[in-house]
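Researcher: Please generate the 3D structure of the following complex. Treat every line as part of one assembly.
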Amino acid sequence: MFKRSAPSPAPEASGLYGVMAEFADADTLLAAASRTRDAGYTRIEAYTPIPIHGLDEAVGFRGTRLPWLIFAGGMTGASFMFGFQTWVNTVAYPMNIGGRPEFSWPAFIPVTFEGMVLLAAFCAVFGLFAACGLPRLHHPVFNAPRFDRASVDLFFLCVEAADPKFDEAATTRFLEGLGAQAVSRVDN
Amino acid sequence: MVSELSDAARGTLQRIQRIALIVGGVAALLAVIGGVVSGAQFFHSYLFAYFFWMVLALGALLVLMIESVTDGVWGLMLRRHLESAALTLPLMALLFIPVIIGMGALYPWMDPKIVAKYEVIALKTPFLNQTGFILRSVIYFVLWIGLALLLYRTSNERDRTGDARLRDRMRTIAGPGIVVLALSWMLAATDWGMSLEPEWFSSMYPVAFVAGMLVSTFAFSILVMWFLSSRGLLPYTIPVDRLHDLGKFQFAFIVVWTYLNFSQFLIIWSGNIPEETFWYAYRFKGGWEVVALMLFFGHFFVPFFLLLSRHAKRNITFLTAVAAYIIGIEVVFVFWTIMPAFHHETGFHIHWLDPLALVAIGGLWLALYLRNLASRSLLPKHDHRLALLEQQHAGHGHGQHEAAAH
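Model: Done. Output below.
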């Protein structure tokens, strides 16, 4: 929904999701990711146990539209809370508080601020869930051998079958040439 | 990667230093002549200008100490610049002498007639008196200059010996140093600024200036980094992620500034008692309300929305333009905080000595700052973060792509 390229795996007739290359260290993965992208592949994704500087650009990640959703959420929260307090204090239930004007905007600011933070945070968290396709109980990449070690000590690069340039045999050979210690087929 | 300051770089810095010195010197001379003609106005303008540059110098010391207790690569880039700016404090101590000379024209509690008339001021004279004021000011400067010199010497020793334990010594100085600076500044801001209206009190007042220190120091730092890198004087390329760090600090402290100033206003507004509200009342009428609105929009909304986007903070040209604007609006903030104290009845007032004093102190300050900056290499010679800076600057080629793309 918020990703610029659709995240869901296209159900291929063959049931093939893509090929997964396994690397021993971050530098090899980073170089391999750059070269894969340079070779013209567009649907690639990396899985690593630690954040790697520059990897997002190496796999061609162009950012998401999530910040815009959060911004809109923040603005909506702030305007709603400010408007709500204005309506309550001037129209619905005007009260004389220490002789101040009914529209005493300085008193509205803390709640306005809280409304902005609350809605922006909700948009960030639930927007992220939506962008990642969560909740989701399983993903094809978990079918790759040793993939659980992506959160321990191995570095993975997946070229999806949905990539226009994808060809199982050629892509496997290409990835093997990039220093992968193993390349395996990933089924849906 | 780390080398001595190149002759070209030293030449450029020294050329600007000479210009700053000449401009500052001429402006100071004109201001003194103006002072002879216009009397008290000279001291009003002087205190305003002094406050602005003092906040910048102390802000550099504060950020330098924050840099010493943290370990960011951003701090490695700024270290020499911050040391140079903090070492202008001896000049600021010297430039405090006119404030002492002008105390009678500046501080109402100096006037026995006013003290006799207002009991609330009379009750404060055990603290607010000439001897105490001068004595305390001397102590503040001893503490601040002491901290700046200690850090500077340790940094130089580290350059000479390469002893990694000296980094721990800097940390040991800077940790308690931050506390010392914060507490002494509470008193200094009360003495120098808040006591211009001695009936009034707000514990937020000094803190609002601390926010100003952080805002203006990062704005000034961004301008300096932009200048050095655009002239090719830096021995490295600023990694985009590190520029992003400076942008994030700038953005965060704009929000802190707003938070502190609005908190002070909200507390006084809701308390609604005359001995507190008059301070704002004078600043919301007679033309000052236009300046207040300018700050409300110009010191919060404009920089907030300009810096909200990630791309804005990663583009050095854009970030520099915003930083220059922020320095300008910070001047307006100091002006609006200090000057209405002298014009309670007459409303908005600006005099040609105001900008002149700003240029006079600023020229001298910048000249000393540039002299300090040109005296050493732009990066410390030994630092465990140098490898990180080099690695990020090589950036596997990617950081560079992005810098060019935006």
